[in-house]
C-alpha cells in the first residue's frame, strides 16, 4: 500500500506476474520533481555516450591517418567533443547536486541531506535469446515460455523507476533474488549468451556493458542503497518517528554499500569502485549521526551545565565525522568526479557543528557559575573529559572556581564559535549550487547571530583584549551510527522458469541428451529397475536383460515424463502411482541422460566502458553453494521395484535471499533518550535552547 503523501511523489504503475504479486514502480512519465530529475539523467547519459563514440572515432582516425590536413581537422573536432563532454558532465554534476527534490515536504528548519541518484540502464530484450536457449539446451518449445519471459522483462523494467518507499525496495529485492535463478537457468559457463547489460555511471555518465550478471547484481544493490538514502532524506525530521526512519534508512544504505564493496571488488563502473563506495559509506553514516544529534536535541536541550557539555561533545562528534567525509572526498581519484556541492556541503557542516560545540561549552561556562549547592567534583570530572588539553598553567578546578578564568575561557570558546560560523558562511558562498538552498543559509546566519549575541552579552569594554585560545573539544556520543541491513533480508520468489524442472538438475551448466522415449512392459509385474531421489526421479539398479534396457534405458537416467504427464517435479511415490497399474501393453516414458560437462571457459568476460573494450577479471566473484554440482551418491542394488526411494537431501532452489549479516544486538542508537523538561522561562535553569 502507498500512503497518500507518497502519491504526489510518484504515480504508480506495475505488472502482475506469475506469482500473483503486483510489482509497483514509478511512472517514468510522471511530472514529479524526482522523475524529471531521472529523465534528465537518462537524456544526459545518452548525450555523453554519443560524444564518447565520436571521440573514440576521432582518436582512431588520428592514429590511422598521415595526412596533416586531416590531422588538423580531427584535432579541431576532438577539441569540440571534449568541450561538449565537459559541459555535459557539468550538467550531470548539477543533477547530483539537486538535493532539494529529495527533501521532505515538511522540512522547514533542518539542514538539507544528500541522497544518491539511481543508476540508469538500457532496456534488455531476453525474448529471442532465451527462447533459442530453451529450445537448444532444454529441448523444449521456447514459445511456450513467452509469458514467463515477458514477466521477467516487466519486472526489470519496473526496477528502473522504483517508488520511493518500502514497496520500491521490495521490488528491487525481488529482482535481485531472481538474478541467481536466471543465471543458473540461462548463463552457461561454457558459452556466452549474447545478452548485454548496460549501466551508466551515476557520477560521470560513462556506460559500462557486460554479458554476465555481475554488473546487473551490483547495480541493483547500488540502487537499493540509493533508494534507502532517498527514503531517509524525505523523512519528516521534525518528529521522533521521522528521525528514526531517517537514521535507520541511512544505516541500511551504508550496510548495502559495504556489502557491495566487499562482494563485487572489481566492478568496472567507477561509482562502484572500492574508493568511491568507502566515501559513500562514510557519508551515509555521517548523515545518520547528524540525525541522531537532531533526535537528541529535538525535545529541547536543558540549560544546565551537564546537558550543555554533553551536547557540545555530541556536536563535536558530528563535526569530526563530516571532516573525515570531506577528507575522503578530496583524495585522488575521488575528487575528480565527486560533485563539488558534496565536498562543499561536508565542509560547511564540519565548521557548523564544530562551532555549535564551542557555543554549548561557552554557554555552560558563562551562564552557570559554580555555586554552593553544585557538585564541584562532578563538574571538574565533566570538564576534564571535554578537553584534550588545557591552556598552560590552568586546571579544570581553577577554571570552575575562578570567575575570571571561567569567563576568559568561555569568551575564547564563543570567539571560536563566531569564527567557525563565519568560515561556514564563506564556504557556503563559494558553491552556486549551495546558494540555491535558502534554508541552509538561514540556519547558518541564525547560528552566527546567536553566537554574536552571546559574545555581546558578556563583553566588557573596560577589559583589555584577551587572545586566549579555546582548547579543542573531545568528540563523544552515546548513540553511534552503525551499518545496518534490511530487516527482511530473505526475499522468497517463485522461479519464473520452474516448468523447466528442478534447478539442481536442469540448469545451464548441466548437459544431457535430448529426451528419449522408452516403452515399458512389465514382466511378472517387474519393470526391471528401481527409482531413487525425489525431483526428478532417477533410474537405478537397472537389470541389463530387461525390456526397458533393450529399448535404450540406462542406469542413472532421469524420468521427465510418463505418457503425457510431465513428472520433472514429481517424487518417487508420485511416479510410482503412474507406473504401478501398467497393463500388458505397457506405457511410454521419456528419459534424459546426464552428459559430462565441457571444461569451463576462462573466467574473463568482455567489458565495454565508454565504447572502448577492455578485459575484466571475474575471479573476484563469489559463487553460491547452490550452484555447485550435486555430488553423486552410491546406491545399493535393489531386487524389487517396491523398494524405490531414498530420502531427499536436496533443498529447494526456488527460495533465495539477499546477503545478510548477524546483527542480533540492539541498535547503538536505540537506547532510551534522556527526558528534557520544557519551560517558557529563559532565565530558569531548565529553560530550553
Distance between the termini: 40 Å
For the largest beta-sheet, the strand count, sense and barrel status come to: 4 strands, antiparallel
- Unreliable stretches (pLDDT < 50, length at least 5) are 1-24, 602-606, 611-689
Class by helix and strand content?
alpha+beta
Helix proportion of residues, in percent?
Answer: 40-55%
What proportion strand?
A: 5-15%
Mean pLDDT: 78
Radius of gyration: 33 Å
Shape: elongated
Number of helices: 17
Strand order in space, largest sheet? 3-4-14-15
Topology, number of strands: 16
Task: Write a structural description.
With 689 residues, the protein is α+β, with helices and mostly antiparallel strands. 45% of the residues lie in helices and 9% in strands. It is built from 17 helices and 16 strands. The chain has helices at 4-7, 33-64, 68-96, 127-137, 146-159, 166-186, 214-233, 240-263, 274-297, 305-329, 340-367, 376-386, 396-401, 403-430, 438-457, 547-550, 572-579, and strands at residues 12-16, 22-26, 197-200, 207-210, 490-492, 511-512, 516-520, 530-532, 538-540, 558-562, 565-566, 587-592, 594-595, 604-609, 612-617, 655-657. The strands form 6 sheets. The chain has a 4-stranded antiparallel β-sheet. The protein has a 4-stranded antiparallel β-sheet with strand order 7-12-10-11, with helices on one face. A hairpin with a 6-residue loop joins strand 3 and strand 4. Helix 5 packs across helix 6, helix 8 runs antiparallel to helix 9 (274-297) and helix 14 (403-430) packs antiparallel against helix 15 (438-457). It is elongated and about 115 Å long. The protein starts with a helix and ends in a 32-residue tail after the last strand. Mean pLDDT is 78; it is low at 1-24, 602-606 and 611-689.
Amino acid at each position: 500500500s502507498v500512503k497518500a503523501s507518497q502519491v504526489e511523489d510518484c504515480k504508480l504503475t506495475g505488472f502482475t506476474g506469475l506469482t500473483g504479486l503486483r510489482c509497483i514502480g514509478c511512472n517514468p512519465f510522471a511530472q514529479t520533481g524526482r522523475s524529471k530529475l531521472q529523465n534528465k539523467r537518462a537524456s544526459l547519459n545518452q548525450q555523453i555516450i554519443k560524444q564518447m563514440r565520436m571521440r573514440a572515432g576521432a582518436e582512431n582516425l588520428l592514429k590511422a591517418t598521415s595526412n596533416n590536413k586531416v590531422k588538423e581537422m580531427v584535432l579541431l573536432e576532438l577539441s569540440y567533443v571534449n568541450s561538449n563532454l565537459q559541459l555535459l558532465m557539468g550538467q550531470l554534476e548539477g543533477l547530483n547536486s539537486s538535493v532539494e527534490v529529495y527533501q521532505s515536504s515538511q522540512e522547514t528548519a533542518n539542514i538539507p541531506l544528500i541522497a544518491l541518484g539511481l543508476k540508469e540502464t538500457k532496456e534488455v530484450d531476453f525474448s529471442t535469446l532465451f527462447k533459442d536457449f530453451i529450445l537448444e539446451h532444454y529441448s523444449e518449445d521456447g514459445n511456450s515460455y513467452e509469458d514467463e519471459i515477458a514477466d521477467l522483462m516487466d519486472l526489470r523494467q519496473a526496477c528502473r523507476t522504483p517508488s520511493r518507499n518500502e514497496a520500491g525496495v521490495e521490488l528491487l529485492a525481488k529482482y535481485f533474488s531472481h538474478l541467481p535463478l536466471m543465471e543458473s537457468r540461462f548463463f552457461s559457463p561454457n558459452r556466452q549468451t549474447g545478452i548485454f547489460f548496460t549501466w551508466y555511471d551515476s557520477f560521470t555518465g560513462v556506460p559500462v556493458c557486460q554479458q554476465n550478471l555481475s554488473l546487473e547484481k551490483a547495480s541493483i544493490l547500488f540502487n537499493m542503497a540509493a533508494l534507502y538514502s532517498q527514503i531517509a532524506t524525505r523523512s519528516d525530521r521534525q518528529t521522533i518517528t521521522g528521525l528514526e526512519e531517517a537514521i535507520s534508512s541511512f544505516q541500511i544504505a551504508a550496510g548495502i554499500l559495504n556489502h557491495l564493496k566487499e562482494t563485487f571488488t572489481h566492478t568496472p563502473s567507477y561509482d562502484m569502485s572500492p574508493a568511491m563506495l568507502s566515501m559513500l559509506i562514510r557519508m551515509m553514516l555521517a548523515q545518520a549521526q547528524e540525525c541522531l544529534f537532531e533526535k537528541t536535541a529535538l525535545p529541547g536541550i536543558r540549560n544546565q551545565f551537564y546537558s550543555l557539555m554533553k551536547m557540545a561533545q555530541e556536536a563535536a562528534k558530528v563535526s569530526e565525522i563530516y571532516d573525515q567525509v570531506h577528507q575522503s572526498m578530496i583524495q585522488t581519484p575521488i575528487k575528480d568526479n565527486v560533485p563539488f556541492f558534496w565536498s562543499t556541503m561536508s565542509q560547511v557542516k564540519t565548521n557548523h557543528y564544530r562551532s555549535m560545540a564551542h557555543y554549548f561549552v561557552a554557554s555552560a561556562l558563562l551562564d552557570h557559575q559554580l555555586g554552593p549547592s553544585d557538585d564541584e567534583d562532578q563538574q571538574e570530572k565533566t570538564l576534564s573529559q571535554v578537553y584534550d588539553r588545557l591552556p598552560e598553567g590552568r586546571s579544570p578546578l581553577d577554571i570552575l572556581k575562578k570567575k575570571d578564568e571561567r569567563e576568559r575561557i568561555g569568551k575564547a570558546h564563543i570567539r571560536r564559535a563566531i569564527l567557525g560560523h563565519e568560515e561556514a558562511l564563506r564556504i557556503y558562498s563559494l558553491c552556486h549550487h549551495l546558494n540555491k538552498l535558502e534554508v541552509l543559509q538561514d540556519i547558518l546566519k541564525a547560528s552566527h547571530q546567536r553566537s554574536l549575541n552571546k559574545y555581546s552579552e558578556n563583553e566588557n569594554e573596560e577589559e583589555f583584549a584577551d587572545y586566549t585560545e579555546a582548547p579543542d573539544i573531545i568528540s563523544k556520543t552515546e548513540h553511534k551510527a552503525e551499518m545496518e541491513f534490511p530487516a527482511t533480508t530473505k526475499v522468497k520468489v517463485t522461479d519464473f522458469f520452474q516448468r523447466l524442472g528442478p534447478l539442481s538438475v536442469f540448469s545451464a551448466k548441466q548437459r544431457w541428451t535430448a529426451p528419449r522415449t522408452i516403452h515399458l512392459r512389465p514382466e511378472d509385474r517387474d519393470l526391471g529397475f528401481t527409482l531413487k531421489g525425489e525431483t526428478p526421479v532417477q533410474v537405478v539398479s537397472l537389470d541389463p536383460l530387461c525390456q526397458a534396457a533393450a529399448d535404450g534405458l540406462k542406469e542413472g537416467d532421469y524420468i521427465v515424463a510418463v505418457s503425457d504427464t510431465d513428472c520433472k517435479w514429481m517424487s518417487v511415490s508420485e511416479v510410482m502411482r503412474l507406473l504401478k497399474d501398467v497393463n500388458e501393453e505397457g506405457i511410454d516414458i521419456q528419459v534424459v541422460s546426464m552428459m559430462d560437462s565441457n571444461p569451463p571457459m576462462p573466467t574473463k568476460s568482455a567489458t565495454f566502458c565508454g565504447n572502448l573494450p577492455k578485459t575484466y577479471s571475474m575471479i573476484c566473484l563469489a559463487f553460491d553453494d547452490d550452484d555447485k554440482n550435486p555430488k553423486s551418491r552410491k546406491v545399493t542394488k535393489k531386487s524389487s521395484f517396491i523398494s524405490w526411494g531414498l530420502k531427499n537431501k536436496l533443498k529447494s532452489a526456488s527460495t533465495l535471499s539477499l546477503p545478510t549479516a548477524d546483527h542480533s544486538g540492539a541498535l547503538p542508537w536505540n537506547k532510551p533518550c534522556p527526558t528534557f523538561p520544557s519551560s517558557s522561562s529563559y532565565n530558569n535553569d531548565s529553560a530550553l535552547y
